[in-house]
Every structure is written in C-alpha cells, then in structure tokens.
C-alpha cells in the first residue's frame, strides 16, 4: 500500500484514512457546541485487510492535531481513542469530565446518529 492520506470530511463527521484510492479506516465524530466546542470521536474503524498497520493510531493523532489547530479540546467517547490518548499524553490532553458528560448527553439526544 502506498502512503496513507488522512482527510477530514467534517460534513459527514468522518476523519478518513485513504490508501490506494480507497478508505481503509475512519473515525466517526461529531462537533459538540455546548457547554463549549469540542471534537467528540465515537467510533474508530479500520478495514480488516488493513489492521495492524498503525492506521487507527494515525487517525487518532490527526484528530488531536486537528483539535489543536482549531483550539478546541477532544472529548473521546471512542474506546480506542481514549486508550490512545492515555498512551500519548504529550499529544492528547486529558478530557474534561464536563465535556465528556455533555457528549454522552448529546448522543442520547441524537439516537441513531452513530
């Protein structure tokens, strides 16, 4: 596989890893607006043929880099992103419990979104 490109499809709420012209993995997320703006990853998925290649980690790293560029925190609900953040505290600041609670409430208020 050639180099993997990460692209943000904000309208679809997907951060996608693209290799050889196909999406090989993605993080599904939403933008929380209140109590303050944050990126909230919900699911990380890597296609089975591409597992073990560091794609999920690259997606998580880019999600935190995107948040840093935008000056917003990340409130990870995705188990993979949460574990990745624990292993990379220098790149992934600890999540604010208030934002995590607000993100969970948002999911309850938007059933079927994920």
SSE map:
Elements: E1 5-9, E2 14-19, E3 22-32, E4 38-46, H1 55-70, H2 79-87, H3 97-109
Antiparallel strand pairs: 1-2, 2-3, 3-4
How would you characterize this protein structure?
The chain is an alpha+beta fold. The protein contains 3 helices and 4 strands. It has helices at residues 55-70, 79-87, 97-109, and strands at residues 5-9, 14-19, 22-32, 38-46. A 4-stranded antiparallel β-sheet has the order 1-2-3-4. A hairpin with a 4-residue loop joins β1 (5-9) and β2. It is globular and about 40 Å long.
Largest β sheet strand count, sense and barrel closure? 4 strands, antiparallel
Number of β-strand runs: 4
Amount of beta strand = 25-35%
Could you say which structural class the secondary elements and strand pairing correspond to?
A: alpha+beta
The CA-CA distance between the termini, in Å, is 29 Å
Which shape, going by the Cα principal axes? globular
What's the helical proportion of residues? 25-40%
- Using only C-alpha atoms, the radius of gyration works out to 14 Å
Instruction: Please tally the helical runs, counting DSSP H or I stretches of 4 or more residues.
Output: 3
- Helix-strand sequence: EEEEHHH
Strand order of the largest sheet: 1-2-3-4
Low-pLDDT parts are none
Mean pLDDT: 95
């Amino acid at each position: 596989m050639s180099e993997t490109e990460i692209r943000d499809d904000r309208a679809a709420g997907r951060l996608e890893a693209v290799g050889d012209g196909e999406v090989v993995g993605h993080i599904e997320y939403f933008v929380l607006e209140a109590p303050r703006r944050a990126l909230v990853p919900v699911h990380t998925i890597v296609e089975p043929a591409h597992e073990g290649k560091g794609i999920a980690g690259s997606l998580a790293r880019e999600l935190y880099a995107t948040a840093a560029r935008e000056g917003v925190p990340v409130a990870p609900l995705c188990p993979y992103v949460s574990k990745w953040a624990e292993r990379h505290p220098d790149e992934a600041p600890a999540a604010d419990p208030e934002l995590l609670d607000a993100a969970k409430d948002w999911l309850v208020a938007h059933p079927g979104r994920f």
